[in-house]
Amino acid sequence: PKFAVFASGSGSNFQAIHDAVKAGKLSGQAVLVVTDKPGAFVEERARIAGVETFAISPSTFSSKELYEKEILQKLVELEVEWIVLAGYMRLIGNVLLEAYPSRIINIHPSLLPSFPGKDAIGKAMVHGVKVTGVTVHYVDAGMDTGPILAQQVVEVVAGDREQTEERIHAVEHELYTKTLQQLWSR
Ligand code: GRF
């Protein structure tokens, strides 16, 4: 299917997904990268990958509804069928939820429902859990609350955030691709 990736930052998950498509491991077509942070590194990745980007700053709209309507117009224009969130640091509102029912997927760097929201890895380290992980889930109106599609455990490297983070990101890149492939080959 045709999909759009929404990202606010570095875009390493976008990169992994795009690489998987190129390698024939994921049957889909990334037709658009949407970012709410103009200038984010994901734009550069998309440019190199040859994927159109749509950078749109929410602060220039008077409501989330108008902001999302602007995005929706672009998605419809490009016949986007699925929305893949990859480090998109914003809740999805009604406009997109209603236009894409059960067609929006997110990845989160913890074993949900533990540590939802921002800095899940930091929160897990502070809590002192021995294992954390990665969750891929359907998106609903809540913060990291939708039905779970896949999870994978990652062992925490005690006292070493950097190494723990590296492990988590490596698992994210594999698990996201694998889960999307399962979802789209049903
Ligand atoms: C990932 O850890 C993702 O799970 C979280 O934000 C991070 C995005 O990283 N929601 P990247 O932009 O894909 O490199």
Characterise this structure:
By secondary structure, the chain is α/β, with parallel strands linked by helices. The chain has one domain (2-184): Formyl transferase, N-terminal domain (Rossmann fold, 3-Layer(aba) Sandwich). 39% of the residues lie in helices and 22% in strands. The protein contains six helices and seven strands, in the order βαβαβαβαβαββα. A seven-stranded mixed beta sheet has the order 3-2-1-4-5-6-7, with helices on both faces. α2 (41-49) links the parallel β2 (29-35) and β3. The N and C termini lie close together (12 Å). The protein binds 5-O-phosphono-beta-D-ribofuranosylamine. Belongs to the GART family. One of its GO terms (biological process) is 'de novo' IMP biosynthetic process. It catalyses: N(1)-(5-phospho-beta-D-ribosyl)glycinamide + (6R)-10-formyltetrahydrofolate = N(2)-formyl-N(1)-(5-phospho-beta-D-ribosyl)glycinamide + (6S)-5,6,7,8-tetrahydrofolate + H(+).
